[in-house]
Amino acid sequence: MSQNFATAPVERADFDRYFVPVYAPANFVPVRGKGAKVYDQHDNEYIDFAGGIAVNALGHCHPIAVNALKAQADHIWHLANSFTNEPVLRLAKLLCDKTFAERVFFCNSGAEANEGALKLARKIGLPKGKTKIVAFNNAFHGRTLFTVSAGGQPKYSEQFAPLPPDIIHVPFNDIDAAKSAIDDKTCAVIVEPVQGEGGVLPAEPEFLQALRARCDEVGALLIFDEVQTGVGRTGHLYAYMGYGVTPDILTTAKALGAGFPIGAFLTTDQIGKNLVVGDHGTTYGGNPLACAVSLAVVEHIASDEVLAGVKERHAYFVKRLEQINEKYQVFSQIRGQGLLIGAVLTEKYQNRAKEILTLAAGERVMVLVAGLNLLRLTPSLVIDFAEIDEGMDRLESAIAKFVANA
Ligand SMILES: *Cc1c(COP(=O)(O)O)cnc(C)c1O
Q: Of these four, 124, 195, 246, 307, which has the most CB atoms within 10 Å of its CB?
């Protein structure tokens, strides 16, 4: 009798048997979620402070996203880009209305958004002999060959050499280093307003201002990678708005679909029109299902109420983390913006962030790390305060065990 694959039982161990082993997932398998709660195969309940790494901006199965997806599912799912569609047209208008942008390119992921932005910058720069790209140490821009090369973590790129040339890295938040690296051969500077994977490290406002001024001086494009900081994460629709520094190109993905894959780069009319028919593209870019979900999600998050709620929740999370720290002295710094929060481990607990993550899962709260020394929280932007309390109680139990074992 042949097996029915749709109903056959599966378990965590199947991951190790069948997958190219580039991930090390937790030892439980989530099967459903509602708000900031997730349930595994045995119906254990978890509080989700990971939010799919800044993706599930409205938590799990929010009615606004579910209804948008269901409604579109009965209309049309996909068209080649030789046809346009209503959801993508509406989403483009919304993003241009709410941001500096006048033109949009849609794709499927953050890496692809950055890839497109960098290609656009190279195309504009090339005829003028401007091909250099300036990026920053510890930056993260995705996993394509161009974007790992722009990223500032050699462990993600050097094994895949030879790499695309003419990309240089300077220390983040170092104005002098950036100013001297950015010259008349530079086509673009790419920077995260808050470094996410690199350790939840916000840019100094003066740093972004200096990049803006220097790019204007030499005629380079300033690209803000807002894949992690975008769509309300920092308490602003995009982080650039909080800084008051406007990029030439902005990349966005992660929360843009709140769990449905979509990415985009946004730019001005002047810059965007340099890519013409045939220059760039992607099969699923502007997919109606993705755009219908994104339209509903972005419109909701762009409200003053949701954005103010992010700032309130930030203060509450920080207060709870500080209370835990008063008892256990595990963190040397709590930093970040909005609901992109990092807690740096003290000297005493160097390189042990992953242990806290594992203990937290045991206490049924999902958290993230960034690097070896930083606990990262990127929960739903609309998480209930009761869920924050419950999750923080569980995190505190995990940290009590961590300290006791240390
Ligand atoms: C996650 C991330 C990316 C890559 O996005 P993918 O969708 O994984 O390709 C790029 N830049 C930043 C800042 C990110 O956080």
A: 195
Q: 180: Cβ–Cβ under 8 A, 6 or more apart, which residues? A: none
What is the CA(251)–ligand 1 centre distance, in A?
9
Q: Ligand 1 pocket test: pick from 228, 252, 378 the residue with the most ligand atoms within 8 Å of its Cβ.
A: 228
Kindly give the number of the ligand 1 atom that is closest to the alpha carbon of 228: 15
b/e for 223-253, b at 16 or more Cβ within 10 A? Answer: bbbbbbbbbbbbbbbbbbbbbebbbbbbbbb
Ligand 1 atom closest to the CA of 197, numbered from 1: 15
Residue linked to tokens 């979900």 = 293
Distance in Å, CA 113 to ligand 1 centroid: 9
Residues with CB under 6 A from ligand 1: 109-111, 114, 140-142, 192, 196-197, 225, 227-228, 253-254
Q: Divide the 406 residues of the chain into consecutive groups of 10 and give the mean pLDDT of each group.
A: 86 97 96 98 98 98 98 98 97 98 98 98 98 98 98 96 98 98 98 98 98 98 98 98 98 98 98 98 98 98 98 98 98 98 98 97 98 97 98 98 92
Query: What is the DSSP-derived secondary structure letter of residue 150?
Result: H
Looking at ligand 1, which atom is closest to the CA of residue 53?
1
Q: What is the dihedral of CA 56, 57, 61, 63, to 10 degrees?
A: -160
What pLDDT score was predicted for residue 1? 58
Do the Cβ atoms of 337 and 314 come closer than 8 Å? Answer: yes
Round the CA-based radius of gyration of the chain to a whole number and report it.
21
253 C-alpha to ligand 1 centroid (Å): 7
Q: Which atom of ligand 1 has the smallest separation from the CA of 108?
A: 7
Report pLDDT for 115.
98
